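yo

u said u wanted the structure for the complex thing, so here. seqs first:
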Amino acid sequence: MDPQLEAFLRQVLVGLSIGCYLALIALGYTMVYGIVELINFAHGDLFTFGFFISLTIWGLFDVPTPLEGAWILALPAIAIVVILLSGGLNVVIERVAYRPLRGASKLAPLITAVGMSFMLEAIFAYIWGANQINYPRFIPTTNFLNDFSRIIRFTPRDILLFGVTIPAMIGLTLFIDRTRLGKAMRAAAQDREAAAMMGINVNRIIAITFFIGGGLAGVAGMVYGLYTGSGRFIMGFEFGLFAFTAAVLGGIGNIRGAVLGAFIIGMVQAMSDLYIGGEWSRVIIFSLLILMLVFRPSGILGSTTSVEKV
Amino acid sequence: MATLLEAKGVSKKFGGLTAVDTLDYSVEANAINSIIGPNGAGKTTFFNIVTGYYKPTTGTVQFDGHDIAGLAPHRLTRYGIGRTFQTIRLFGHLSALENVLIGMHHWLRSPWWSDLLKLRSTLREEAEAIRHGEELLAYVGLKGFEDVESRNLPYGLQRRLEIARALATRPKLLLLDEPTAGMNPNETKDMTAFIRRLRDERGLTILLIEHDMHVVMTISDKVTVLDYGRKISEGKPSDVQQDTRVIEAYLGSRALKMIKN
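structre next:
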């Protein structure tokens, strides 16, 4: 096969896989913004939390590397525990740090979120260490495409990644579109006071939103660990910024927009890594953010809430 | 007649400003009551106390046998208090029917996992809710507009949709904050007749804030006048109309002297 084409196809798969993590993080960003109009800068750290806490849970057992036999069933079980813990942590953060400030000016919870992010990162560094941490290689990296190409790689890790993230995105979309609770979330996102007057417990809806957002980010962190094999206490900051860019790109507050934005960013990163050079990827992605904010602040698919300057 | 709502000694202070000042107020079941007064008299603040947005600084509020002062709005809705807002606050991106369905949120029962799997119980409840929603829309005069996004409806219909949505919460008491604001004389006349129908046909008790004196004097059983958060007059429309304190509050004391002279 033409090596140019091979390299291109490899980067397409890389772009899709980056898009998958980013989408899971961006969904939480956009849902929280949709309801409380808060750019939750601490959101990316839930991703890091999912990475570390899953590592700790694996450590409690004597797990064979790579996973074999019944241990494969531990994957979904631990994923569920990670979702519950990261979702729960996000609910606690909302309760102690953001809810008391709900009546205050928009700047107050925003600064608090930045502070919360620093706090979480310091706590992670304290508990799990400040160095690059290796994640056990539970999932083998045998390339299914070996006979076809040695450059384009599709491994059991990719199956895990797509197998977790894509159903999660579809499930969330169905949840919001179809369920009564999802409808209540959409109502609360448009007008909290009016929603309360409809008998909707808005505090509960906000807590559920933080739970879902935190859970998705946490499970993304776990999958990231399994996929790449390492991570660091600070990584949520950068992933959070990328996910935020994705959410803005798609239209902040817009669920489908967040997924679309995440895949665009993933692709842009993969392609600029190949054709321009990895050191330029961030420049290109954040330039995209700036251009979007200047020329089309409501995003590609449109913001569901009225666009406000942050 | 039974008393549905009773506020005793209710005050609300915002810092140094007393928006509502030791107000005693009651609404009899099945009555149409109006609260009037100049801008800033505390009318909407009182509405916000009754609907749970504000906790009164002092005083008690009883509704239908419950002590409600300071309860969260969604709980008051469950007790049977519905409201519309001074400026329209529909869920603009949702259709007329969806707006009404959200009004039914608190008394529908199907859990989210049943909604996702589309279990038979959910489908049955949903079909019932949609039928009820269409009925309500037809009742307020929005038949045929079910699927229109509510922000695209003409103004007068948006006002009616807000009422349909409030009705969907199954209220006993309906609070209408300036229901005829921004309407032309014909629309105002229709709305006045419609409010009366809500009471006569659906057995609702209605509490209005209204600036249009013609509307107030036509439909009210009892009119209460607030000024600087205090009740300055209360009674039948004809009594309040004659009350010099009311004229003074609206036009100022000099105007009153001019009228007397």
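The interface with chain B takes residues 171, 174-175, 178-184, 186-187, 190-191, 193-203, 304 of chain A (CB under 8 Å). The mean pLDDT of chain A is 91.
cya
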